[in-house]
Design goal:
The complex is a heterodimer of chains A (about 325) and B (about 250).
Chain A: H1 2-36, H2 43-68, H3 76-92, H4 98-121, H5 127-146, E1 151-152, E2 164-165, E3 168-169, H6 170-188, H7 190-207, H8 212-238, E4 240-241, H9 249-259, H10 271-290, H11 295-314
Antiparallel strand pairs in A: 1-4, 2-3
Helix pairs in contact in A: 1-10, 2-6, 2-7, 2-8, 2-9, 2-10, 3-4, 3-5, 3-8, 4-5, 4-8, 6-7, 7-8, 9-10, 9-11
Chain B: E1 2-8, E2 11-17, E3 26-31, H1 37-44, E4 52-57, E5 60-62, H2 67-73, E6 75-78, H3 90-94, H4 112-125, H5 142-154, E7 160-164, H6 172-187, E8 191-195, H7 199-205, E9 208-213, E10 216-222, H8 228-236
Parallel strand pairs in B: 3-8, 3-9, 6-7, 7-8
Antiparallel strand pairs in B: 1-2, 1-4, 4-5, 9-10
Helix pairs in contact in B: 5-6
The chains are: A mainly alpha (about 325), B alpha/beta (about 250).
């Protein structure tokens, strides 16, 4: 009994700290960055940083949805490339109007996400395996579609997505809207409630007659759409869709969620946390760049941050499955 | 239930068992492992269908094809393994799968205030005091968790509540709370079928005990007209084979 009591206290504390941990990490990182590099707080760097965080953050929304149900999505990096390339191809090669091209890209993302979701929910293959396969398939499909070459030079309209309203990048506005809507769904709708519930105790959710498969299908579709949206944002930013775009971004998306306090056993976390997690990952990369640390080391640094975050946040949260 | 039988392959899980439950009555179902207790209640809950015999509910013959039909008749089951979602709070658990929503089509926006109000009402009906409605149910004691599970079953205003081992894995103090809950249920007009391995618990809340052995009913006695010793003898069959070790 003694241990259970302490265990519960610890969980209570961990839950309360779920937002505090990323918050204080973020503040610390910003302060340190500002001290270490004189360029960090310059307007140009902040503008660049916000544009950069946007893409990671948008992938992380979908990732958070999936992780909250107790799953994992390894495909967003590849689906970013696929969605981006599909949109580019539709606009540039097929000659469709920009909005239609964008919808087309998002639809491809949804389709790939639906494939993930169906295999996880209906065929009951672990999401790790399904989305690992989709990571390969999505990348391969992108290479086939683009013939391995970037698609460049879009009509003027596309660059609007990557423009600025005053000092604020349109990209970050898009992300803000996505986050607000996605958090509203999580907090106030049945769908959101069931996403948390499935991560807590899937069996119990099935017993009361909730269609668990449909919820799972939804989170994977949503993650696919978020990834494709990230790809379209990247198209606009670089004025080019490269088949290798987004490689390794699944790491950033997962790390953002975990750093933000989303429990990878599911059922605990929020998008506020995830956004802070995305900021931490991006600022860290930015700082290492400013300090002139070679890109090779950055991977090591990111990996280690992820492990540290997992150690400090995962303890004490174990729910019955 | 009249003369119900159930076979699984060649095994007779239940053979021509009559079982009745009166209004506002608490019946304790007793029997060793494999005596047929679970089979019996699962037929009432719509999980199994009897091979033989009939089920009468309020004087009408009924067929219970699935758990939903059982629920719509007013038969709710609280299962042994607590089907609670640990990371959600009390109202969310009580209303899981039937959250009240605002009348905006498609969006399914949960009416949190309505939910909390109802949850409080139900807990009050059971005379349960819980300080924080909004901490995850993981933080509740075993007895409180059982209370939440019972509240969930109670929400649909059932006429019959089946409880399979509601006191298993609880500390003594918690067991008493759950037994109090059963008394409260009875007072509020719910009939209860109560299964427990602890005879003492069964005796303290039941009006009548029904004893099963190897798929047959071997006893059906008002609780105040029998003793735990007699029940144990019936349960293991010592009456018929006095030479057996009890």
């Amino acid at each position: 009994m003694e241990t259970t009591g302490r265990f519960k206290l610890f969980i209570g504390a961990a839950n309360r700290n779920r937002i505090l941990f990323p918050f204080f990490s973020l503040i610390t990182l910003i302060v340190v960055s500002a001290i270490v590099s004189p360029y960090f707080l310059t307007v140009i760097n902040i503008k660049h940083l916000l544009a950069q965080v946007a893409i990671v953050a948008v992938l992380a929304v979908g990732e958070t949805y999936v992780i909250l149900t107790g799953g994992i999505d390894l495909a967003p990096g590849s689906l970013l490339a696929l969605g981006g390339a599909a949109t580019a191809a539709l606009i540039k090669w097929v000659g469709l109007p920009i909005p239609i091209g964008i919808l087309g890209g998002l639809f491809i993302g949804a389709l790939a996400g639906a494939a993930n979701g169906l295999l996880v929910a209906r065929v009951r293959i672990p999401s790790f395996i399904v989305t690992l396969a989709m990571l390969a398939i999505g990348r391969g499909a992108t290479l086939v579609l683009t013939n391995g070459r970037p698609i460049t030079g879009f009509p003027h309209g596309v660059s609007v997505i990557a423009s600025y309203i005053g000092p604020i990048p349109v990209l970050i506005i898009i992300v803000f809207v996505v986050y607000v809507l996605a958090q509203l769904v999580l907090s106030y709708t049945k769908l959101g409630r069931y996403i948390y519930a499935i991560g807590g105790n899937e069996q119990a959710v099935r017993i009361v007659g909730i269609n668990v498969n449909r919820v799972k299908l939804f989170v994977f579709i949503f993650s696919g759409v978020c990834a494709a949206l990230g790809g379209i944002m990247m198209d606009a930013r670089l004025d080019s869709a490269t088949p290798t775009a987004g490689q390794g971004y699944e790491l950033d998306a997962i790390a953002a969620s975990v750093l933000g306090g989303v429990s990878f056993t599911g059922g605990v976390g929020s998008l506020t946390g995830t956004f802070m997690g995305a900021l931490i990952m991006t600022i860290l990369g930015n700082l290492l760049n400013l300090l002139g640390v070679a890109a090779f080391y950055q991977y090591i640094a990111k990996g280690m941050i992820l492990i540290i975050a997992a150690i400090s946040l995962s303890r004490g949260v174990r729910y019955a499955k | 239930m009249k003369g119900v039988s159930k076979r699984f392959g060649g095994v007779h899980a239940l053979e021509k068992v009559d079982f009745s439950l009166g209004k506002d009555e608490v019946v304790g179902l007793i029997g060793d492992n494999g005596a047929g207790k679970s089979t019996l209640i699962k037929m009432l809950a719509g999980v199994y269908r009897p091979d033989d015999g009939e089920i009468l509910f309020e004087g009408r013959q009924v067929e219970i094809h699935n758990p939903k039909e059982a629920k719509s008749l007013g038969i709710e089951t609280v299962y042994q393994e607590l089907a609670l979602v640990d990371n959600l709070d009390i109202p969310a658990n009580i209303f899981l799968g039937r959250e009240p929503t605002f009348r905006i089509p498609w969006l399914g926006i949960i009416d949190g205030q309505e939910m909390e109000r109802h949850a409080r009402q139900i807990l009050e009906r059971l005379k349960i005091k819980i300080n924080s409605m909004h901490s995850p149910v993981l933080n509740l004691s075993g007895g409180q968790r059982q209370a939440v599970a019972i509240s969930r079953a109670l929400y649909s205003n059932p006429k019959v509540m089946i409880m399979d081992e509601p006191t298993a894995a609880l500390a003594v103090k918690e067991v008493n709370k759950v037994l109090d809950l059963i008394v409260q249920l009875k007072k509020s007009g719910v009939s209860v079928i109560f299964i427990s391995h602890t005879l003492q618990n069964t005796f303290s809340v039941s009006d009548r005990v029904v004893i099963l052995r190897k798929g047959q009913k071997v006893g059906d006695i008002a609780t105040d007209k029998t003793t735990p010793d007699e029940v144990v003898k019936l349960m293991v069959g010592a009456e018929e084979a006095p030479t057996g070790v009890v």
